[in-house]
Amino acid sequence: MRPTARPIGAALVVLLFLAPLSFLVTGALREPGLLPTDSFTLLPNPLTTESLQRAFELVPLGRQLFNSVIVAAIAVPISVVVASWAGFAMVLLPRRVRGYAVGASLVLLMVPLAALWLPRFVLFRWLGVVDTWIPLIAPALLGMSPFYVLLFYWSYRRVPRDLLDAGRLEGLRAFGLWRRVASPLVRPTTFAVAALAFVTTWGNFIDPVLFINDPDLATLPLGLRSLSALGPTGFPVLLAGALVATVPAVVAFAMVQRRFLQNTREAGWLGR
């Protein structure tokens, strides 16, 4: 690609992703009670935050935002650590057993999530943890997704075996090899998995619908569902609530991207 084509391509990609965000912001700054428009306006006239205030009045978005932050703050680190452990453990397995583990992960990855809703509900109801945050956090104890485990496995496979052998000669066991040798070298993958796990947890709608009945434990997706029932005239209020839900995700992605790019440059030799 020519040097002049790269900035143009990057600008087009940025515009592609900024377009829906611009529509979200402009729609949230319109007056409540207005019908959706067919045309896009850069700044609505008049410009007001009344829809945002109305969203917080109709639904306890502040409480739900706090609940979503707590659930994500607990589930994301757990899922990253567990997926990292599982991926590194697969690297240490004998070749034949490793192949079975990778194959089992691929099979689990193809299982539709809808097939797990009923068994999970029966299990959590039997354990007596329905109407708590435990069902929302429990998937993190399994790495949240086999895809995250496979991402770590692929990254750890690129770590030179000489480094692991040198660590063993220094007396390091499996946990020490993971913490002191392998994990620092795959930080870009760690940040990428953290971002994916955050999006999965932050936008999780089905689990709160299935397991949360207490309004004080409701997360932000449940609040957006309530706002969606306002009808066409409540569209600015719905967009205001969606803006509240989007801002933390955008901030988290911006922070992760900066660390991701920084660590990718520092560990660029690993991508050889």
UniProtKB/TrEMBL annotation:
<dbReference type="GO" id="GO:0005886">
    <property type="term" value="C:plasma membrane"/>
</dbReference>
<dbReference type="InterPro" id="IPR000515">
    <property type="entry name" value="MetI-like"/>
</dbReference>
<feature type="transmembrane region" description="Helical">
    <location>
        <begin position="233"/>
        <end position="256"/>
    </location>
</feature>
<protein>
    <submittedName>
        <fullName>N-Acetyl-D-glucosamine ABC transport system, permease protein 2</fullName>
    </submittedName>
</protein>
<keyword id="KW-0813">Transport</keyword>
<keyword id="KW-1003">Cell membrane</keyword>
<feature type="transmembrane region" description="Helical">
    <location>
        <begin position="189"/>
        <end position="213"/>
    </location>
</feature>
<keyword id="KW-0472">Membrane</keyword>
<keyword id="KW-1133">Transmembrane helix</keyword>
<feature type="transmembrane region" description="Helical">
    <location>
        <begin position="133"/>
        <end position="154"/>
    </location>
</feature>
<feature type="transmembrane region" description="Helical">
    <location>
        <begin position="100"/>
        <end position="118"/>
    </location>
</feature>
<dbReference type="InterPro" id="IPR035906">
    <property type="entry name" value="MetI-like_sf"/>
</dbReference>
<dbReference type="GO" id="GO:0055085">
    <property type="term" value="P:transmembrane transport"/>
</dbReference>
<feature type="domain" description="ABC transmembrane type-1">
    <location>
        <begin position="65"/>
        <end position="256"/>
    </location>
</feature>
<keyword id="KW-0812">Transmembrane</keyword>
<dbReference type="Pfam" id="PF00528">
    <property type="entry name" value="BPD_transp_1"/>
</dbReference>
<comment type="similarity">
    <text>Belongs to the binding-protein-dependent transport system permease family.</text>
</comment>
<feature type="transmembrane region" description="Helical">
    <location>
        <begin position="69"/>
        <end position="93"/>
    </location>
</feature>
